[in-house]
Every structure is written in structure tokens, then in C-alpha cells.
Fold this protein.
Amino acid sequence: MRWLRFSVPGTPEAFGILEGDRVREVRGSPFGEWEATSRVLELAQVKVEVPFIPRTFYAAGLNYTRHIMEGAARRGEPPAVPMKPDMGYRAVNALIAHEEPVVIPADATKVQYEGELAVVIGRKAKHLTEEEAFGCILGYTIGNDVSERVWQKSDRTFWRSKNTDTFKPMGPWIETELDLEAAETRVRLNGEVRTHFRTNDMLFGIARFISTMTRYLTLHPGDVIWMGTDGSSPDLKPGDVVEVEISGLGSLRNPFIAEAPR
Amino acid sequence: MRWLRFSVPGTPEAFGILEGDRVREVRGSPFGEWEATSRVLELAQVKVEVPFIPRTFYAAGLNYTRHIMEGAARRGEPPAVPMKPDMGYRAVNALIAHEEPVVIPADATKVQYEGELAVVIGRKAKHLTEEEAFGCILGYTIGNDVSERVWQKSDRTFWRSKNTDTFKPMGPWIETELDLEAAETRVRLNGEVRTHFRTNDMLFGIARFISTMTRYLTLHPGDVIWMGTDGSSPDLKPGDVVEVEISGLGSLRNPFIAEAPR
């Protein structure tokens, strides 16, 4: 089942369920009570919105071996492979929807993509075992953890390198059934596959993260966990189009444009 | 003017305006449309709730000189004084209200307080100059950035050291008028002042932070910025009561208790 959030001019944003290439509008929300309505629209005729605004926006960061190795090589540092799952944060100001443009600030010089699986929490959860962990998940969506590598190195935190406005494309929808073991992530730059990895080839898997996190914190419906990326990215420039595809889930595509002069 | 969020058994949470030792209930929210109602309750008879759930929860981190020096000395490291304002993040799962208990996890060994001024954003803002920065502020509240120092050192991020459930007391209310230059922060442990500093004695002030941040990101109504703390804290134990007072603003008091056995 695929949940999306959409809008059409003149009516408020709503959740919908994808039925082939059509969208059935829903009253309510997948995070609470909902019922399907009789209103059905063509997917091609609605604006796809960010599927939800996370309550807490978690990000695993370093969670695939090749990404850690290539990042360390780029910085001329020895690779620091995490020994345990430590969760970071991203910020909702930076979220944009499928097809919306990533705006490269005038003073940004090294912008790169990171294609990621995003785990959408559907139930309140604390003290879950690894066996119980999947029980709090509503579904999965796709994230592009756009990063400015110079700022990532120069700043004390990731506030600017990863959370500049428009740096967090997420969508296009939430898929509630995903064969994780079979899933593959492909990132296309201007139509050409430049990064390709098994989505579930993680250093620490989803169950391990959720179990570790909920030892100390409560997960809430509408929280999201971005699971990290593998490989590396070329430097992006205005005019580029980046598409993150996860097989069985969908494809998140965003153009990159230059900041308008002020 | 003081805004608080409160509840009484049997009715939903609501915003209210403090009138002496009474609360006037408000329909709506200080972040949007609102109107006062005729319902007035005794402050002593309502439960004070977290004044709002932030949309994005920013934290300045290192922003007072003595705190940086004493933290470095504690870790046996040279002090790293930030050269520019870089913003970090905290998480809403950890928020608790005035008088609610901070729960010390069974495996936590070095829990400390950090009394902080919290800046509450009331208007959408981008590209503000330092002169314009205060125009997006609704008011101020108080935060206690409770931290577990062993985890702060051992973990790759602050997810556990600073965002364990109940580690972020905030409140008791939002004060819309505050004489920043006159304000002093006092932290009392079991009634005795243990930390005392001029609230506005920051490395980078509020205007500088907001101006720097909004070069890259949009601030939204309901965002909060915790401005950091000065000095250091003793290690806290179950049974302790910590009170963060900012003169002209109010006082945020929370007991510390042990995690119940599972």
C-alpha cells in the first residue's frame, strides 16, 4: 500500500492512497484514524507533497562500509567505522517534495547527494527487542541527504552542511510493504546510474537501531529514521537532476538549481 | 505577557495567559490566531504542560566561555572555543514540563544540569540582519539541557547523552517581554545556588545566531533555540531537585528520580 500526501489548487493538502496511476483521497492520516473517500484523482494531475513532516527526524549517518571508506579517503583521514549505532538528527526546515528543486547556495562549492532508505514510524514504541522492532514501522520512503562537504568539515555541527533549506528531498510516498532483502538503491545523475548498492547492506540494520534507540527514547508516530547511504557522489551543479530509486519502493527525483541573486 | 500551556483533568490541553496567580484560557495559539475566553483558573490548580512542542529544536551548545573552559578541563582536553555560531539540535521526545521528573537511566553514571535561556520563534524568518533578528521572536522560556557526560564522550552523537526521554525540561511559560541585559541565570540544587551567570553573557548573542542561521535556513513559528549555559554542574543523583531561574522570566523546577526496574 502506498500513502502519499498531495495537493490540488484550491483545496487543502490531503493524504491519499495510490491505486495504479490514480490517487484516492483519504480523510485523516495514516498515523491515526483514517477513512477512504470517493474522491479519486489522476496522479499526474496532483502536486506530490512531502509525505509527512516528521516529529523527530533521525539519521543514522555512517552506516555503509564503502561510504565510510570513500569519505575518509576524500578527507585524507583514516576511516572511523562506528562500533555501535549512534543516531544523528536532521531538520524539517530543509524538507522538499519529489520534483521540487534543491537550491544550491551561492557560497556552496561541494554539494553531493546521498540516497537513503527512510523508515517511517507508525506506532509509539519504547524498549523494543530486535525481534519486536519492525512492529512499530508504518512503512518506508526515500530520502536524499544532500550535503555540502566543505561546510561539513568546517562547521562544528551539520546545521548548514546538511540542513540548509531544500537540502532534504523526501518522498514520493510511503510504501507499507517492502522486501528489504531484495531492495537495491540506484542513484542516477542526469539519467545515468552513478551509485548502486544493496539497500539492506547496512553496518547496523533497522532492528538493531530501533532496539538500541528505544532503550533510551520513545519513538512516536510520524518520526522518521534515515538509514544512511553507500558509495560516494560526484559534485553537483545547477542544472543537474538526481533520482534516487529503491526497487519495490519508488523513485525520488529532484533538479538542482542555483540560488537566485539577492 | 506570559503564555503557558496547561491542562485540567477532563478537558483538553489549552494555551493560557498568566494573570497574577491565575490563568485565562485562550482559544487558538500564540503561534497563530487566538482569542481570550472568559474561563479563568487558579494557576495552583492546573497542570503546567510543556509550553509548546517545537517544530525544530535548536541548541547553541558551547556559547559561554566558563562552560567551555570547565568542560575541557573535566575531559583533560585543551578548550576549543568556537570561532563562529554553529547550531546543534535536540529532540522533542525528551521534553518534560515544569515539576515533571527527570528519570536517570539505570546505566547512567554522570548526569548534570545545564540551565539555559530558550528563544521562542513566533514568525517565519529568512535572511534577517542582526538588527532585524529580534523581530521574529515571540518570547523566552527556560530549558535544562540535562546531559550524561560519559555518553557525551563515548557516543558519536548526542542522541543518548542529551536526548534520552525526560532529559529536556522546558518551561514553565513563555515570557514575551524580557530585559535581556538585566537577566541573570541561577541554578539551584536542592535549594542552594550552585551556578550563577549573566544570561546575556554569550559568546555569540541571539541576534548573531539568528542572522547567521537565516542566511541558510528558514525559521518557523514554534521553532526554539536554546542558547547554551555557563559554568558547570555537580553530578546529580535520584532525590535531587534542580531549579533553573532566570530573573524576569521565571523558574523551572524538576526532581530527579531513578529509572524503575524492568
Summary: Residues 50-258 of chain B form a domain with the Fumarylacetoacetate hydrolase; domain 2 fold (CATH 3.90.850.10). The CA atoms of residues 58 and 86 of chain B lie 10 Å apart.
